[in-house]
Specification:
The chain has about 425 residues and is α/β, with parallel strands linked by helices. Helix content is about 25%, strand content about 25%. The strands form 6 sheets. It has an 8-stranded mixed sheet, with helices on both faces. Strands 4-3-2-1-5 form a 5-stranded antiparallel sheet, with no helix packed on it. Helix 3 crosses helix 4. It is globular, with a radius of gyration of 24 Å. The relative contact order is 0.09. About 0% of the residues have low confidence. Keywords: ATP-binding, Ligase, Nucleotide-binding, Protein biosynthesis, Transferase. This is Glutamyl-tRNA(Gln) amidotransferase subunit D. It comes from Haloarcula taiwanensis.
Length: about 425
Amino acid sequence: MNAGDRVRVERAAQTYEGVLLPSSTPEHLVVKLDGGYNVGIDREGASVDVLESDVYDVESAQDEQSQSAIEFDDDLPTVSLISTGGTIASTVDYRTGAVTAQFDAEDVLRAVPDLAGMANYRGRVVANILSENMTPAVWQDLAQAVHEEIEAGADGIVVMHGTDTMQYSASALSFMLDTPVPIVFTGSQRSADRPSSDNVMNAVSAVEAATSDCAEVLVCMHADESDDRCALHRGTRVRKNHTSRRDAFETVGAKPLGEVDYDIDGESTVTFHREYTERDAADLALHDDIETDVELLKFSPGMDPSLLEAAAEDSEGVVIEGTGLGHVNTDWIGTIEELDIPVVMTSQCLEGRVCDRVYDTGRDLLDAGVTEGEDMLPGTAKVKLMWALANSDDVADTMQEPLAGEIQQRSTPWL
């Protein structure tokens, strides 16, 4: 049997039928099932019948893929593709069946040939991790890499990132960089071996956004379950709201900043719905100092104030995700008053603004020294506090000043 043969594999009372693919290990068979999914099967104890030989020319397909180099065109913009890992740059590890980050940026270009002809590309790997392993140190490396790429003449940046913590990284770069060009984060909810993968549309749409006029940090992901639009979310206002849907990301408190109407024939268009920072309006600058000892604590009924004390110990600041307008149990107020570090109050509610002037608890919190987080998302508030502690002489004022669209001027219905 050879790669490209149609086979039937039986092992442990299970039967698999499909096209045999090359395997990264000699101990495993890889079969592409008729439904489009790949499966890895231990060779030991497996019986294989070849149903039809050479039904798929795997060797030619691999040669064609390996030859997808992008040639330089003076008439095209230059986009830097920066990889940090994640599902958009991942394959299946057939030893475990798990998705693992393995590709570098050049592999992504080979995997998404639709990118050819849209721009000139430079590839760069900052990290090769799943996004749950993201750290503030990698944010700094990423910000420095983006700064270097723009300095070197990139007309736009696409950051390929795992979706689970993408909103944190996008917030971090929003504060760390003044940018004259678009910086677009994108990822994939479903890996490339799945027939429902969103990697191609997201990558192509991100490049379209990276060559647009909006010089902000954006997140580009599916706008709905169909393959026709990607939403462009401001990096400080976006939240992942579903574990697995392709349209998992939403802008909180407003419509997305813009969208890309995806055209499989290469005629995609970018549209923006609200004001944005235009290309070349800002001078490139890097402010990547950050205080890592900041905690985010979610309050729930019955929580002991000792948990706040534990979170604040050895910390330089705390963000609390309070209830409603920004409240915690009144038993917490004395503890907050004794802390000698900034305490920022945000809300667990997805919509609306913190206002601690309505009820007695809120006014007591203000007297205890709490800073209202306005309508910032709790995760964004944590990242901003980390940045403010390292870059501001007046942290409380900075936390209440809109710097990168993280605070909206009014919380009003937007539908």
